[in-house]
Amino acid sequence: MKNSYKEDGEYVIIYIIHKGTIYECIIDKINFEIVNSFNTTWHLNINRSGHLDGIRTKVQTDKVRKQIWIHRLIINCPDELIVDHIDGNIFNNTILNLRIANFSINGINSKLDKNSLSGVRNVYLEKGKYSVRINNVRYGRFNSIEEAIKIANEMRAIVFPECKRKLSDQLMKNVN
User: Fold this and answer.
1) pLDDT band at 36 (very low <50, low <70, confident <90, very high)
2) Are 34 and 23 in contact (CB under 8 A)?
3) What pLDDT was estimated at residue 113?
4) Closest Cα to residue 96, out of 107, 85, 109?
5) Which end of the chain has fewer CB atoms < 10 Å from its terminal CB, N or C?
6) CATH 3.90.75 occupies which residues in the chain?
7) 75, 78, 82, 84: CA torsion to nearest 10
């Protein structure tokens, strides 16, 4: 690996430089050998809409160039599935923060859309009230955002029981 790094207890911090900014990618020390085995530089990937996708590198063998994602490498994810960062932080690539998931779970666990009027996932501001919708099913309209957040969390737990991440605690700080 051509990136700078440092060992910090049971973790290794890999420094990713993107447009003059240094980012810290954290991995477990036990995965350092496989990540370090690539004689390339790990880069931050930003998709077309400007969202951070993850940390990747490219390797070439027999004139075929292949992209390798650090989170897929660490968890050895099958091609037909995806890797979900449980805490939503693409720089936290520790084993306890990664899980193999389908697109539905990953989407529910993704960060809030930057154009959200309510500031809360699955809660929409409609005609002065807060509406809760998950997968195009409406679960009611509420006068307060606190009521809507409570119902949204309850319904997400029912609709997506395998998704452990609770967004309400973090989001309630934004409301208060």
Assistant:
1) very high
2) no
3) 59
4) 85
5) C
6) 5-105
7) -20
Question: What local confidence, expressed as pLDDT, does residue 168 receive?
Answer: 38
Q: Is 1.10.10 the CATH classification of the domain at 5-105?
A: no
50-91 per-position pLDDT tens digit: 778 889 999 888 888 899 999 999 999 998 888 988 877 889
Contact, 29 vs 94, CB < 8 A?
no
Geometric angle at alpha carbon 156, from 142 and 122, rounded to 5°: 50
Q: CA 22 to CA 109: how far, in whole Å?
A: 26
